[in-house]
Specification:
The protein is α+β, with helices and mostly antiparallel strands. The protein contains 10 helices and 15 strands. It has helices at about 25-40, 45-50, 70-80, 155-165, 170-180, 205-230, 240-275, 295-320, 325-340, 365-380; strands at about 1-5, 15-20, 60, 85, 100-105, 110-125, 130-140, 145-150, 190, 200, 280, 295, 340-345, 350-355, 390-395. β1 and β2 (about 15-20) form a beta hairpin.
Length: about 400
């Protein structure tokens, strides 16, 4: 089972799409994720606003190289006015170093970093699918240039880099949830059969594609060696060079023979691929290739609880951050707070439910927690199902 998680710029999850049979990121984006985002994302520009501003978009999708597809970028823009952003799979040669300048980037979390950036317009894709996009490159200290392509035409240069290079916050979500919430634990032990009409990847096709890729790799290696030998031939000069020339000629002939052999193999396997359907129904699978799916019930509930818990904790961590407390430290403070003992004191007369938390051993932590409690108390929330207003306080500041 493959889960596709949709998170915001700070890593907070919106929803998850389960796929027992994984169709790939692009298909899942087009058929499951984008339609839901078009329906649920608030404050999207109106059709009139999009008509008046040809560079405006409804929202921006940020994903890794698996989603690289100029055709998909074009379809999302033409059909929905949705912008996409990912790493460039096939960047051209390096840009001159004087194209880059140091820029201060504000990440979605609020953190500020310095990056060396440059930008150009680039025609990405081939033939009818080619599309003019923004290409932004980041120059690392080692001299490597990381290329980003995007159709977010109105987004500032620094914002493009901030969005793309903050994708690690989603990885932080998975790592954090696995450690603290057991995200990767099997929540349901039952299984159920798939529908006989469920489309699955043809295992024969997968095997043939693996053979094709292996043969193509071997062929490319030999072609490059052959080209190098042609560029630097051994010139016959004397008797010693004659021996060297014959050895070179023999190796060249052997390489040519191997190239012809792999070209014939590649032609054969491509013919087989053209006659093998990519997808078949589950019923058409051989018995040894059939599989079953996990029961989804409990997993969906746990995924929902995990998303709510993480989003709530992220919101509370934002209230704790300050010049001396960064986001990771704020999360640590909350984790300590969640397991700290507390007294629950209902007061029917004053219509209050006091949560008196025992203070920590560190004055700095107590000060930060008191600040958090002040903000929580200002919300004037009642405990669900009662008319008692929640009041949070530390024992060190509690009044008898």
């Amino acid at each position: 089972m493959t889960d596709y998680w949709v998170n915001d710029g700070t890593g907070r999850p919106f929803f998850v799409v389960e796929k027992t049979v994984d169709p790939g990121l692009l298909k899942t984006l087009e058929e499951d994720i984008v339609p839901r985002l078009l329906k649920d994302i608030p404050n999207q520009p109106s059709a009139q606003a999009l008509q008046q501003n040809k560079q405006a978009c409804r929202f921006i999708l940020v994903f890794d190289r698996e989603g690289y597809s100029p055709a998909f970028f074009r379809k999302m823009w033409d059909k929905h006015r949705v912008a996409c952003m990912t790493y460039h799979k096939f960047p051209t040669e390096n840009w001159p170093l004087d194209n880059f300048s140091s820029q201060e980037i504000t990440l979605p979390s609020g953190e500020k970093v310095i990056m060396k950036l440059a930008e150009r317009g680039s025609l990405v894709g081939t033939k009818k699918q080619a599309m003019w996009m923004r290409e932004v490159r980041k120059l690392t200290d080692s001299g490597h240039q990381t290329s980003i392509i995007t159709t977010a035409y109105e987004l500032e240069l620094t914002a493009v880099s901030g969005r793309m290079f903050s994708r690690w916050c989603q990885e932080n979500f998975f790592r954090y949830m696995k450690h603290h919430y057991g995200l990767d634990m099997l929540q349901e032990y039952g299984i159920e059969p798939l529908s006989d009409t469920q489309k699955v990847v043809n295992p024969d096709r997968r095997q043939q594609e693996g053979q094709r890729n292996s043969i193509q790799s071997k062929l490319n290696y030999r072609l490059s060696r052959f080209a190098a030998m042609e560029l630097h031939p051994v010139i016959k000069k004397d008797e010693t060079e004659d021996v060297k020339y014959k050895k070179w000629e023999r190796k060249r002939a052997e390489l040519l023979e191997e190239i012809e052999h792999y070209e014939n193999e590649l032609k054969t396997i491509k013919e087989q691929l053209s006659q093998t359907p990519k997808h078949i129904t589950w019923q058409e699978l051989r018995d040894e290739d059939k599989f079953e799916q996990l029961l989804p019930g409990k997993k969906r509930l746990i995924d929902t609880v995990n998303m709510i818990a993480y989003r709530a904790e992220t919101a509370m961590a934002a209230l704790l951050t300050s010049p001396t407390i960064d986001f990771p430290m704020a999360r640590q403070l909350l984790q300590t707070l969640f397991v700290t003992e507390a007294d629950i004191l209902p007061d029917e007369v004053k219509k209050q439910l006091r949560i008196r938390v025992h203070s920590t051993s560190r004055p700095a932590s107590n000060k930060a927690i008191e600040k958090l409690f002040e903000q929580l108390n200002q919300t004037e929330l009642n405990y669900p199902g009662t008319d008692l207003r929640l009041i949070y306080e530390l024992t060190s500041s509690a009044k008898n």
